[in-house]
């Protein structure tokens, strides 16, 4: 798996070098990405991270589109600097001109979402319920306070939680 992605990264770099008539330093490639993102380019570290699960489920498109998408971020950064927009004109130029691919910002791979627990908070005006994430609930336990925007009273944990 890693070998196929590494090979595609190298192919993308060779295409960019022919197009721009210059060399680029090769990035570190990692398969240490989970969740909904298919890939991430770390510009400052010259590193690419890919999601192995999404790769296994979408190999052809992943190799063609996703790998090129992430490499294009590093090439754009190297060519045009850090002040460009992530999916701006420079990145789009690389996707179209170098890779002859549509400059798609997001993938449409089916992503299985894991069950998420929501902690239910309420206020004095009872203007509904406020489902908090685990992270926000933990912040409350450490002393963080949240207020209702309508009545300005502190949101309090109701003791209820829901998985969904």
Total strand count, please? Answer: 6
The helix count comes to 5
- Indicate the CATH topology of the largest domain: Zincin-like
The CATH architecture classification of the largest domain is 2-Layer Sandwich
User: What is the topology, as strand order, of the major beta sheet?
Assistant: 1-3-2
Name its key features.
3-stranded mixed beta sheet, Zincin-like, 2 domains, Uncharacterised_SprT, SprT-like_domain, alpha+beta, 5 helices, 164 residues, cytoplasm, elongated, 3-stranded antiparallel beta sheet
Topology:
Layout: H1 2-20, E1 28-30, E2 39-42, E3 47-50, H2 52-57, H3 59-80, H4 89-98, E4 117-122, E5 130-132, H5 134-141, E6 156-163
Parallel strand pairs: 1-3
Antiparallel strand pairs: 2-3, 4-5, 4-6
Domain SprT-like: 7-158
GO molecular function: zinc ion binding
Binding site for Zn(2+): 69, 73
């Amino acid at each position: 798996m890693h070998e196929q992605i590494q090979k595609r990264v190298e192919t993308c770099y060779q295409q960019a070098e022919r197009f721009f008539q210059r060399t680029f330093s090769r990035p570190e490639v990692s398969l240490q990405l989970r969740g909904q993102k298919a890939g991430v380019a770390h510009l400052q570290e010259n590193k690419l991270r890919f999601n192995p699960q999404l790769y296994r489920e979408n190999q052809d498109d992943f190799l063609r589109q996703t790998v090129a998408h992430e490499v294009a971020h590093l090439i754009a950064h190297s060519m045009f600097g850090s002040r460009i927009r992530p999916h701006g004109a420079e990145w789009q130029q690389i996707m179209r001109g170098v890779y002859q691919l549509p400059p798609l910002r997001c993938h449409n791979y089916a992503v299985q979402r894991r069950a998420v627990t929501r902690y239910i908070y309420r206020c004095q005006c009872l203007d509904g319920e406020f489902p908090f994430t685990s992270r926000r609930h933990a912040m409350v336990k450490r002393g963080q306070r949240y207020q209702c925007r309508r009545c300005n009273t502190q949101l309090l944990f109701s003791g209820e939680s829901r998985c969904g």
